[in-house]
Amino acid sequence: MSTQGIRLEASGELVTSIEDDDGGTSRVTARGELDIASSAAFGIELARLIGERGPDVVVDVSGLTFCDARGLAALVAADGLARRRGGAVTLTGPRPQMAKILRLTDLDRRFAPACTSVR
């Protein structure tokens, strides 16, 4: 497993860890804030991962304490890239607030079936 941290000055911190399973799916764990300050670097990392390891990615978002529109856009862009390559990005473990945002934006359908909420 490789770990990468994205450190931000005043805007908080997003830390990701990446691992592969034997089935060709990459698993990303995101902790902290996925926002305007961290979304570009996160999106670049997901695109690199899709390009190097394959188009199927599972992102565990249970450790996210905040996700804004830019964070959602990074996830949607990565999913678009993955789908063009024959895969998909799925989300697991969104906290209730993020699950609500995903429902309100209909993104819960896009990131299904693994998009289940953590209570």
Question: If you had to describe this structure to a student in words, what would you say it looks like?
Answer:
Helix content is 37%, strand content 34%. It is α/β, with parallel strands linked by helices and 119 residues long.
Pick out its properties.
single chain; 119 residues; alpha/beta; Transcription Regulator spoIIAA; five-stranded mixed beta sheet; 4 helices; 34% strand
Number of strands: 5
Q: How many DSSP helices? A: 4
Numbering strands along the chain, what is their spatial order in the largest sheet?
1-2-3-4-5
CATH topology: Transcription Regulator spoIIAA
CATH class value = Alpha Beta
Describe the protein's topology.
Elements: E1 2-7, E2 13-20, E3 26-34, H1 39-53, E4 56-67, H2 69-84, E5 88-92, H3 96-104, H4 107-110
Parallel strand pairs: 3-4, 4-5
Antiparallel strand pairs: 1-2, 2-3
Helix pairs in contact: 1-2
Organism: Actinomadura citrea
Protein name: Anti-anti-sigma factor
Domain STAS: 28-119
What's the gist of this structure?
The protein has 119 residues and is of the alpha/beta class. It is 37% helix and 34% strand.
